[in-house]
Amino acid sequence: MSAPAQPVLHLTGQVICGPEEVHPEAWVVDGHLTFERPPASLEVERLEGYVLPGLVDAHCHVGLEAEGGVTPERAEEHAVTDREAGALLLRDAGSPVDTSWIHDREDLPRLVRAGRHIARPKRYIRNFAHEIEPDQLVEYVRAEARAGDGWVKLVGDWIDREVGDLRPLWPVEVLTEAIAAAHEEGARVTAHCFAEQSLLDFAAAGTDCIEHATGLTEETVRIFAEQDIAIVPTLVNIENFPAFAEAGQAKFPAYAAHMRDLYARRFETVGLAREAGVRIYAGTDAGGQLPHGLIAREVEAMLQVGMTPTEAIGAATWEAREWLGHEGLTEGASADVVVYTDDPRRDVRALAAPAHVVLRGVRHGG
Ligand SMILES: [Zn+2]
């Protein structure tokens, strides 16, 4: 057996593999996690603390900022910021630039891309989306399904300035056809939805997930639970709703009132979904309005909807990894782990201060 290129890492303290499974120690050998003690002759570096699988930001945008797509250098900064925050698996919920090169960078987080947002003309933030008409939707969904990493992102509703309120973008018939096309291509579909009606439409059309989902009602919560439609609420970004309302107040008072109402009941709404058993994952929406690296804050916000600390941690680790088809802390898995000095299960705010970040077996920072 040849000596590994990297020293063996000995993880001690509590290796938290899941809500019910904690090990006193584990090792990182050649980039992989093992629970079997390696030969004593190998050089060992010890990392002590509370060990979690690399966190998941299930909704962020790499290579996207408020004005639209940015340079690869900026996209790299986004990814590095997430890594430093312990977010080692990112689900990119739409980016106008091709960031597939990140897959080849061992030092950057793992990335699951949804391709570019798909919206209608003037019905989303400028420069973000493919802006198309409904008769082009199926074709665009197919193309993004092929370009991405197993997800397609639609804009489900947005302000319609002629109506002065949030309105769905797509007729249900074409949506149904488009989602079926994505599924044929092996991709799952998610959509940006703030208001009530788009949730009914997307559920009827067979969506897999909804982002934000602030318009959930008792009826749609029941449907989402029945159909196993996941949600990624992005609570830290919903904090911007009062500012959106304020900006629209003069010209679009109905829209402003609607946004304030969705905002006022945000915790109650997501709490209803939780009680009904809807899957909920942690995402920050970094990249549009917010900076990267806020996953700890999103987990903390999830307590406001009634989640226990262990549930909220699961929404950003075990559960989210499984949902995205990535390993957690299992024998032979890639060593993508974060070590904390304090126990995040006692106080999730500990997640904001990783002591050590290990990605593909390599220590970064700490
Ligand atoms: Zn987003």
UniProtKB/TrEMBL annotation:
<dbReference type="Pfam" id="PF01979">
    <property type="entry name" value="Amidohydro_1"/>
</dbReference>
<protein>
    <submittedName>
        <fullName>Amidohydrolase</fullName>
    </submittedName>
</protein>
<feature type="domain" description="Amidohydrolase-related">
    <location>
        <begin position="50"/>
        <end position="357"/>
    </location>
</feature>
<dbReference type="InterPro" id="IPR011059">
    <property type="entry name" value="Metal-dep_hydrolase_composite"/>
</dbReference>
<dbReference type="InterPro" id="IPR006680">
    <property type="entry name" value="Amidohydro-rel"/>
</dbReference>
<dbReference type="GO" id="GO:0016810">
    <property type="term" value="F:hydrolase activity, acting on carbon-nitrogen (but not peptide) bonds"/>
</dbReference>
<dbReference type="InterPro" id="IPR032466">
    <property type="entry name" value="Metal_Hydrolase"/>
</dbReference>
<dbReference type="InterPro" id="IPR051781">
    <property type="entry name" value="Metallo-dep_Hydrolase"/>
</dbReference>
<keyword id="KW-0378">Hydrolase</keyword>
